[in-house]
């Protein structure tokens, strides 16, 4: 893809009003502020440790499927330095891309390069059916992260999110490469077939990093509805501190 070509729709991301816009409105209503970094901004930093010195929390609200080696390295170094990460979509950090002379070229999936994204995110891309089947999340674990569920009135087995319509499109799930101690907070069981389950995950590292992965592509689109709006606020408050 040539980076100097005109982009459709004035360069507005596809489905902005369905995914990113609800998150931005949610932030405004919650009176939260944040710096907005582009991918080139990240590459100007010397290391992920520098990023950790600047920010306690980095949030990926959208669908960051393609990243360069530099970007992957920086975010992994940031996590290793104790930085907190929130991924509010699915299928993030899936494939390596290379930029040469203003042209972005798609390369192999990171997991084929011995860098499975589950080792960073906690879960990784599992399947996609273009949204033909969707469902609500089922709470699986409230004991290991009670702060996330505070004030939501949910227990293990409760449904939440879009009960009508639900979530899906692309989904993440844990693998053997998920960090030790990764927990499944909620899941959409057998969404895309027997055993093909969307999983919302969370883990912490000995260095103090906290990492959340929503596990469904369109999860962030319900940021303005209860209980997701309250869940996001709990998540933000817990991870936006050193």
Key traits:
242 residues, alpha+beta, Rossmann fold
Compose a concise summary of this entry.
The protein is an alpha+beta fold and about 240 residues long. The protein has helices at about 20-30, 40-45, 50-55, 70-80, 120, 145-150, 230-240; strands at about 55-60, 65, 85, 95-100, 105-110, 125-130, 135, 135-140, 160, 165-170, 170-175, 185-190, 200-205, 210-215. The strands form 4 sheets. A 7-stranded mixed sheet has the order 1-3-14-13-12-8-9, covered by helices on one side. A 3-stranded mixed sheet has the order 2-4-5.
Q: What's the level 1 CATH class? A: Alpha Beta
Q: Measure the end-to-end span.
A: 38 Å
Q: Approximately how much beta-strand content do the residues carry?
A: 15-25%
* Fraction of helical residues: 10-25%
Quantity of strands, as a count:
14
What would you say the CATH architecture is?
3-Layer(aba) Sandwich
Order of helices and strands: HHHEEHEEEHEEEHEEEEEEH
Estimated radius of gyration: 17 Å
Number of domains: 1
Coarse structural class? alpha+beta
Would you write up a description of this structure?
By secondary structure, this protein is an alpha+beta fold. The chain has one domain (8-239): Rossmann fold. It has helices spanning 20-29, 39-43, 48-54, 69-80, 118-121, 146-149, 228-239; strands spanning 57-60, 66-67, 84-87, 95-100, 103-109, 124-128, 134-135, 137-139, 159-160, 167-168, 170-173, 183-188, 198-204, 210-213. Strands 1-3-14-13-12-8-9 form a 7-stranded mixed beta sheet, with helices on one face. Strands 2-4-5 form a 3-stranded mixed beta sheet. A hairpin with a 5-residue loop joins β13 (198-204) and β14 (210-213).
